[in-house]
Amino acid sequence: MSNQREFGVASRSECVSNDAPERPPSAEFAAALSVPRNAKIGVAAGVAVAVLAYAYRVLELAGPAADTRGSPLLFAVLAVTLAFGSAALVTVALTLVSAYRLARER
Question: Where do the record's region annotations for Disordered lie (predicted)?
Answer without folding.
Answer: 1-24
